[in-house]
Amino acid sequence: MGGNAKTTEFLKECLADALIKLLKKKPLNKISIPEISETAQVGRTTYFRNFSSKQEAITFKLIKLWERWADEHNIAERKNFTSKNGLTFFEFNYSIKDLLALFYERGLQSTIYDAFYSIMVSQNKENVFEFYRGLFYSYGLFGLLDGWIKRGFHETPKEMQEYIDKI
Q: How many other C-beta atoms lie within 10 A of the C-beta of residue 60?
């Protein structure tokens, strides 16, 4: 069973990578599912079995990139961003700045927020405080990220953390 889960994750990432490769050449609405599948060298049914939309594939890829980056950087706290560990948030985003710029160029900002929502907002319905706290920081940090991307990542991640501290 573990092998199947690994294979599924690998195929999902292949599809997401294929979509990103195609996004570099044309807008999302001009990219077909058969084109994504062909580029990824997997069957169309694999796409439909794993994703309900192209945006979902992008969100999946962002989450995978975060998980990989967090592993590489020994990040213990991966789902609870606050004003105290915002630097980690900005360092990660800076590491994928070209990808984020591409998503903005293609009007896909919502996929970025969807990924961060999934990462940052507690899915524990029992703890209402944690849920709202996650929303507060996810919207706030995304707002700062949005401005940072639009400014071309002019500031360093450390400067972005300094802005959080001042706010």
A: 22
Q: Are 48 and 76 in contact (CB under 8 A)?
A: no
In this structure, what token pair is assigned to residue 31?
């990219």
Whether residue 30 is predicted with pLDDT greater than 80 in this model: the reply is: yes
Q: What CATH architecture applies to the domain 1-51? A: Orthogonal Bundle (1.10)
Closest CA to 159 of 65, 86, 80, 70: 86
What is the per-residue pLDDT across 134-167, written as a single tens digit (0 to 9) for each? 888 888 889 999 999 999 999 999 999 999 989 8
Residue 148 to residue 56: CA distance in whole angstroms: 23
Q: Rounded to an integer, what is the distance from CA 99 to the centroid of its chain? A: 10
Instruction: Give the gyration radius of the chain's Cα atoms.
Output: 17
DSSP string for 49-109:
HH-SSHHHHHHHHHHHHHHHHHHHTT-S--S---TTSHHHHHHHHHHTHHHHHHHHHTT-H
What residue type is assigned to position 150 of the chain? K
Q: Domains of the chain: which residue ranges?
A: 1-51, 54-167
